[in-house]
UniProtKB/TrEMBL annotation, chains A, B:
Acyltransferase found in the keyword field: no
Keywords (A to Z) from UniProt: Oxidoreductase
Gene3D superfamilies tied to this protein: Aldehyde Dehydrogenase, Chain A, domain 1 (3.40.605.10), Aldehyde Dehydrogenase, Chain A, domain 2 (3.40.309.10)
One Pfam family in the UniProt entry: Aldedh
Domain Aldehyde dehydrogenase, first and last residues per copy: 18-468
Taxonomic placement: Bacteria, Pseudomonadati, Pseudomonadota, Alphaproteobacteria, Rhodospirillales
Protein name as annotated: Aldehyde dehydrogenase (NADP(+))
Amino acid sequence: MKITGDMLIGAKSVRGRETTFYAVNPADGKKMEPAFGGGGEAEVREACELAWAAFDSYRETSLEARATFLETVAQKIMDLGDPLVERASAESGLPRARIEGERGRTVGQLRLFAGVVREGGWIEARIDPALPDRKPLPRPDQRQRHIPLGPVAVFGASNFPLAFSVAGGDTASALAAGCPVIVKAHSAHPGTSELVGRAVQAAVAECGLPEGVFSMVFGAGNSVGTALVSDWRIKAVGFTGSRRGGMALVSVAAARREPIPVYAEMSSINPVFLLPSALSSRAEALGKGYVASLNLGAGQFCTNPGIVLALDGPDLDRFLETAKAEVGNSAASTMLTPGIFAAYDEGVRKLSGNSKVRLLARGQACSGPNQCQTAVFETDAASFLSETDLQEEVFGASSLVIRCPDLETVRTVAEHLEGQLTATVQADESDLDAARMLLPVLERKAGRVLFNGWPTGVDVSHAMVHGGPFPSTADGRSTSVGTLAIRRFLRPVCYQDVPAGLLPEALKDGNPLKLWRRIGGEMGRD
Amino acid sequence: MKITGDMLIGAKSVRGRETTFYAVNPADGKKMEPAFGGGGEAEVREACELAWAAFDSYRETSLEARATFLETVAQKIMDLGDPLVERASAESGLPRARIEGERGRTVGQLRLFAGVVREGGWIEARIDPALPDRKPLPRPDQRQRHIPLGPVAVFGASNFPLAFSVAGGDTASALAAGCPVIVKAHSAHPGTSELVGRAVQAAVAECGLPEGVFSMVFGAGNSVGTALVSDWRIKAVGFTGSRRGGMALVSVAAARREPIPVYAEMSSINPVFLLPSALSSRAEALGKGYVASLNLGAGQFCTNPGIVLALDGPDLDRFLETAKAEVGNSAASTMLTPGIFAAYDEGVRKLSGNSKVRLLARGQACSGPNQCQTAVFETDAASFLSETDLQEEVFGASSLVIRCPDLETVRTVAEHLEGQLTATVQADESDLDAARMLLPVLERKAGRVLFNGWPTGVDVSHAMVHGGPFPSTADGRSTSVGTLAIRRFLRPVCYQDVPAGLLPEALKDGNPLKLWRRIGGEMGRD
């Protein structure tokens, strides 16, 4: 499939006339062909009109039809073959194997949501049968289902050009919920975006769905992005990126005549707690595991371990010795974009210049442009508590180890943290009392609490939560990874005494869809 | 129990020193004893500190203990006996029978949530067992439950001094979720608030819970209310009242360092659609039912039928003739407060002065102060579509009938409406095609769609939705009535490879709480 540089508005290819831009290969800093055209308000409006026109029909597709559509998208992405892998790798600087793995994750996630759609639990059907003899008033027949919110704007993320981009988690969960999607493609991987966008577009056509189910636009965040989030037809927003970018969208959404929810996943430093017994028994293994997690994807993961807390002492010194050696052996690796590299470089420079922070180790020297040279710093708890800046995320392989005098201080630092995507505890059997003391704090601070692992793996499962209290996300009541993500795009509707012939399938007597439903509050599959 | 005029901060009675105010009996406009003391930031801070201190312990109470607590609150409210009914009736102008019914609803709702807590479905436990042999990477053990958000600020509503006030739906659902509650009592019924507040306070003590589980403050919205919503310990807000009041809280919540969700139920005109065949076969019965619904509680219901849409013609004329007669026979009834009466009077005056609107009928003359004299107006679809003002809620018994030339125009007007709590359809068998055409619009616009009834009854059930798209609420993804309301105060947390000894009961192997859980995505009670 040829990359044209066009936007996809429903079934059409549309050339953006407002701006011209190119992808840049961060490994050599060079422009890649072809030129892409960024659009403006007119194209956004057209995409929104098409999405709105598609909504009532798409949201009532059968569970089977919608599931098949998601599976078709997955297949069409696989059918793109090697050119997709090559283009994504060139645009992102990420190695081929990583892109192949991410492609597997992306299509796996679409197929998982197909299964979720078929099972239908997300509809959360409830029926309270009429009680005509109830006193003082009869009870009407009441039935509840969840319906999709409406067209969703999805902003592709730079760091997962497939899994959190055009057909990534936000798009998969919104389409699964029954919402048309308009993607604002990320300018860091426009070719990858177009290829995947064309796969979705082809799936829409093949499945006989209205063309407005999917569109994809190129353009600047503060023009095309703002126009998209401002359009009255858009009813929710999915975003993964910086805190500044996320909060800008939150402001636009709140200023609308009808404010809408923004699911922005923004910023997290993912604390790791090394409890004393674990640190004593496996300081070296922990040091190795830590640096491996830190280096994954040049540190460009939302769940990158940005701070480590441990009791000061010889066990921590052993951990740091190993970490230093591992960092010293870490090859520099290309970052996603020159902009991300510049921000990383600036963040590391700021930490290096902070008198309360000491540089422990840096990775091997860079051999090309835009390379991340792993950095590990240390400080003490008192300094960390007094310097708000030290909580700021440095996106990339940079991490800060905090020496704490005692467990009570560890807890105090934990309480001092802002909301996080993850909190990790390294604990042996005899650390369980300390872990028990920490756990209530970590539950309040993070969306995922994990033991004896590293936070950088985010499984796409039913129990996953990739979300958390502000500022890790703009809405801590939800997740952007895993099957619960479908709920972000739904709202409940009650049908009272609605004639049988008008009831949606999910709420009909006899349970034709064989759903799990609550009848009079009792869960069952009637 | 004596009414003292004090606030309840944890286990203490605290005299507010910032302001002094009295309840006013709207039936005679006279002040009622005793004087109440409004508090300030210091008392708000103290209540928040106590709530925060109580949170970690209260949220881990057993399901049985929490359910018993809710039932104890219900019993203590009943134990207040007649003095509660008398005070609430005097402070609100609502008749005794209505207050008794509302008390039944209030304690019934607390008991319903006790049952919900015991059943435990709201935890939404999910377990994805480890797959150590999965390729390319092993899957860790992942478990998910929902935990409460934190202390919740509840703003009592004026129009249900029991059911949407101190121990009303917001408080019941927040306590059920495991959130401590701080109520900002409504100044229209402070004596009722104190009585009920003391019942809750006594239940907290009797159940051996930390005192901070419940506090209640008096004071002005823009000082005490703002201080409450601004406090970092408050993690969500429940509100029922005006659009202006709700949006003010939304702004305060959004401006916090950590923004929090505001569940504000604000404004709805609850369209009623009279379809042709129903109108033809039962114009008179519909006219009577309409005015009865309009007059309920002097029209001071969030679900009051504020607009009616029907095809112009002789059937509509018959409907209006009956409605006119019924309105003419409607006795004036006392409104909740002088302020609400003044706003109603102003709203009716504005409609009367609109040249595109015609006054059809008014109720009987007033016999005392602050009385609502039912008003029904008519206009045509073209005028309604051109005048945005006509969509504004007039709180009280005021309603506007819109003559439409055809069904397509009915649909156009429906599409033109803002978000609503309810949409009502009167339809006979031969109206079903017309109803089918309207239904997708109504689902998008409203939280509850009902047929052949009136919107003013809001059942407290499992399937109820009392919520809807903006501006009917600030967050259309939820309900403030019915058991699904518990979800507003919860968020998901994932536990990855957490040692068995640290897992919450709900997620343990062997399912000790006998919950419905999803294991590997499959619903069951293992």
